[in-house]
User: What shape does this take?
Amino acid sequence: MTAGAPTPNINAVLAPAAHITGTVTRAGGGTLGSFNVWAFVSDGSGGWRVASSSAVAGDGSYDVGGLAAGSYRVSFGDISGDYLGQWWNNKPDVASADPVTVAAGATIRTSTPRCSATLRRATT
Assistant: This one.
């Protein structure tokens, strides 16, 4: 490379991103907006890291995109603390959460109930 000179042939082929979509509702019915959904991926050392996240829209829908093909653990949470968080399939933590596996470019849609959650109000 020469300073100030263009470098040719810096190319890339991008794979299509996968998405996990669904709906977050409150126990007893109704949607919950202004909450968050996170997709965690193994860090390879026994831990987990956030791969992508999504805010929940006012109608309760979410779309966690930008995911590579693979297996994820999905967490639903209320950062205000009014509702108890949970992991997909009503699990209490990442260790017990069931995996959601996506293929490159695939979308696990709202019509797949496995990607939706019902949160219950926190008690004091």
